[in-house]
Amino acid sequence: MKDNQKNLINTIARYVVGAVFLFSSFVKGVDPLGTTYKIEDYLTAWSIGSFGFQWALPFAEFMSMALIVLEFLVGVMLICNSFKKLTPWVLALMMLFFTTTTFIDALTNKVDDCGCFGDAVKLTNWQTFWKNVALDVFVVLIFVFKPKDVKRRTERDVLIALFAIVIMLIFGIYNIKNEPCIDFRPWKVGNQMIPGLDSEEELEVKSFLIYKHKATGEVKQFESKEFMAFVSENPNYQEEWEFVDSRVENPYEISADGFAMLDAEGEDYATDLIGDEGYLLIMTIHHLADVDEDGVKAMKYMKRFAMENDMQVVILSSALQDDMQAFQYENDLADIDFYFADETAIKTMLRSNPGIVLIKHGRVIGKWHYRNYLSINEIELD
Predict the structure, then answer these.
(1) 92 vs 55, 116, 127, 146, 165, CA distance in Å?
(2) Which pLDDT band holds residue 250 (cuts at 50, 70, 90)?
(3) CB under 8 Å to 337, separation ≥6 — which residues?
């Protein structure tokens, strides 16, 4: 094979892997706290024998930023063909780690989503593993068809590396200090959280039954009315078909998995509150002990803002009721209704602690980090 053909294959392989690394690091850099939570899941779920990794939980945020910066740096160096000898070896070590980790994860399923593409693209564990295997092929090509004559361009390469590190650090830290600049989560501004509210007609709740053919393995989904017709036509259907699962489509349920707003008696008011025709201002707290003075200041302002604009305001927190009540009394927030929600559901809603979200008739009107609470004044209220 001629040198120019080898160089072409090497270039294509570098560009493919580099583009994937740049995309992966960007969608993680948009939401470093999301990557932090995923690393915490791994540190909590994984162990080697009796040796666990929970001792590393305080370093999860640092590990998140380190991973994001390293992925971005390697992606840039691959695209720019910088540090031609060093970069392929760093890449190979990273891919060895990623491939091994995702293979074990696919086998054990201890963490259901590796978060390799943040919240932008969701993959199953096996899809993630095979994605890494495909990238490994390109990594091999980079080594097999590497140029023989490698000219050193140390000053250029150092400048490119420093630029990549600084850019991603600034980008990542900005998104930690604020809400992510691009929101890939269900509670994105503009989203209708109760789809049925946008319909001019009243929609019906549909139930589905999922069956599998014992001989062919065919999986078929029946709507409840269709299933009754199927049964009447096939009275001995159980001999050929076996039940797999069932599901319900309710257009008036909140389209966010695991979300609830529970009162002290355990009753869920999420649909009633979110679907109300008026404005609903929710202040979220996923870690009560971490709320600082600036956070309390923002919450007090939101309370006044809600009262002045005749809108309902509530606090949604994963804290225990007694702890939450004590916090409210200490900070002149006792007259605000408190609802309980799962910590993960709140983090999905807002990364900020506390955070602020404004909803009207099921639609997300605005979301703010507590540091940017005054931005709510820019919203034009009806």
Answers:
(1) 28, 17, 20, 14, 20
(2) confident
(3) 314, 315
Residue 91: closest CA among 27, 24, 154, 153: 24
Beta carbons within 10 angstroms of residue 112's beta carbon: 11
pLDDT band, residue 329 (cuts 50/70/90): very high
Structure tokens that stand for 352 in this block: 């900020």
Q: What mean pLDDT do residues 124-143 have?
A: 94
3-state DSSP assignment of residue 184: coil
Q: Which of 269, 263, 262, 327 is nearest to 300 (CA)?
A: 327
Query: Which tokens belong to 344?
Result: 């993960």
pLDDT digits 0-9 by tens, 65-119:
999 999 999 999 999 999 988 999 999 999 999 999 999 989 988 888 888 888 8
Which amino acid is it at 207?
S
Q: Are 284 and 357 in contact (CB under 8 A)?
A: yes
Instruction: Say how far residue 247 (Cα) sits from the centre of its chain.
Output: 24
Per-residue pLDDT tens digits for 368-377 = 999 999 999 9
Q: Closest by alpha carbon to 330, among 279, 371, 286, 296? A: 296
Mean pLDDT of 13-42: 94
| 3-class DSSP assignment, residue 320 | coil
Residue 48 has pLDDT above 80, yes or no: no
Cα–Cα separations (whole angstroms), residue 142 to 75, 90, 158, 161, 375: 13, 12, 21, 20, 49
Tokens of 133: 């295997």
* Residue ranges with strand state E in the chain: 47-48, 51-52, 206-213, 219-223, 241-249, 279-285, 312-317, 337-340, 355-360, 363-369
